[in-house]
Amino acid sequence: MGVPLDSREEQAVEVIDRLEEAYPDSTISLDYSNRLELLVAVVLSAQCTDERVNGVTADLFETYRTPEDYARASEAELADAIYGITFHNNKAGYLKGIGRIVAEEHDGEVPDTMSALTDLPGVGRKTANVVLQHGHDIVEGIVVDTHVRRLSRRLGLTEEERPERIEADLLPVVPESKWQVFTHLLIDHGRATCTARNPDCSDCVLEDVCPSSKLDHDVDLASGESWD
């Protein structure tokens, strides 16, 4: 029966412990070899699958190796290079703008502060957190993507709806040493079991502590709607 633990803090620790056992190698799934490639890949991954991004960046990173390469390219050229990525025309503009700013204002180096990163085109707090964590080994927040939003609500860890508010709500609940892996664990579980439309509650390692379990409850706390 899906009954969460008494406090959100206890619930978070239990979720992390179980998911770490289920996904011992959980980490970022984007392919990159340096900070610029990481930044580009994360910008492209917005509303797009990591698998598709990795397929496009395999060739992209062979052609565009420096911020100046992106800055010199036309938006049309970049859009063609990332064709197949969701919103490729908009993201082409982001890449060109990122290249120019990184080259001109940061000596060609991807910045290492939240404020400088979020000043870049197409970079919000989620993207900046990923770049800080995996590019600079700086962990100052929790990355809230669509999987983290869905699972953290389903599991009763937050009732907030917007990513920024979800992150702020989770920070005092999730142990700081687990902020980075928490995201990857929820992403892995969201892809494998706790999917958006048809979660496999009968084969879920968290079912007995999940207040959204279809086996026991009528409402999906992620959406607030009744299960079909």
TrEMBL record:
Tell me which SMART domains the record gives. ENDO3c, FES
Q: What class of enzyme is it?
A: lyase
- Note on cofactor: Binds 1 [4Fe-4S] cluster.
Q: Name one GO molecular function term.
A: DNA binding
Q: Which InterPro entries match?
A: DNA_glycosylase, Endonuclease3_FeS-loop_motif, HhH-GPD_domain, HhH_base_excis_C, HhH_motif, Nth
Instruction: Look up the EC number in the record and give it.
Output: 4.2.99.18
An example GO BP is: DNA repair
Keyword field contains Zinc: no
Q: Known catalysed reaction(s)?
A: Hydrolyzes mismatched double-stranded DNA and polynucleotides, releasing free thymine; 2'-deoxyribonucleotide-(2'-deoxyribose 5'-phosphate)-2'-deoxyribonucleotide-DNA = a 3'-end 2'-deoxyribonucleotide-(2,3-dehydro-2,3-deoxyribose 5'-phosphate)-DNA + a 5'-end 5'-phospho-2'-deoxyribonucleoside-DNA + H(+)
Q: Which residues form the HhH-GPD domain?
A: 44-192
Show the stretches that span the lipid bilayer.
none
Q: Tell me its family.
A: Belongs to the Nth/MutY family.
Q: What is this protein called?
A: Endonuclease III
